[in-house]
Amino acid sequence: RSAYNIKDYETSTKYYKLIATETNKIVNFYEYFKVASMNSSIEELEKLFLYYKENYKGTKDYAKDMYDIMGTAYANLNRNVEAEKIYLDALQITNDPLLVENLSIIQVRLKKFNEAYKNINSLEKTDSRELVKGTILINLKKYSEAETIFKTISKTSKDKDVKEKGYLKLAELYLLQNKYNEIINLNKDYESEKYKSKEMNDYIAIAYLRLGQFEKSREKYNENINLSPDEKGNNLLMIAESYYNEEKFAEAKKYSA
Asked: Taking the complete model, does pTM exceed 0.85, yes or no?
């Protein structure tokens, strides 16, 4: 356990494997599987999960955690079909809200929006679940309902990260509807909450660009060069586009070179 606490997962995996083998107890196998998920290949994890299903069949203890670890491993690799199957299988064993929520997130990735909405809507409301629901509603083109959700989250959520996501999803929604002035006004509230992000700058820059306010658009793209140096090239190209739209071709050429 001390190896686990200092994130020496290789040593910790060997230790828990030995304990799990000697005791054959589900609690020890779960600890082994959890640590293995942090430093093993997906193929190794699949073998362990198959062993779990064959040797601990009918055991509900730790089922939620075992299935969620496997589902998350697939999801992190964008293997969403396998992840969905894991969560569907898990719900045959235990109807845990976390599994339902994660299933709905995977179904959004798979564009199964009606199924995802049904699942997320079956759960008790939380701000994070409402974010998922709002995202689903955007894809179902139920923009008014999505807007209500994101406005509520951005105004009332006590979770700072979730609150910020509410603002960003609302900006995304406004951009989809070509509501450029709404994005600019939303940003005032966003910044009054002491938020600053590349994502919001992107929305604001595009809004200014579409409104023909090219200098303000360039200001945001220049800010993003500092906020996200890895994407400097993309921001320079957008600055070049703003000059091109303004028919300042010499400046456009300089930034697109």
From this structure: no
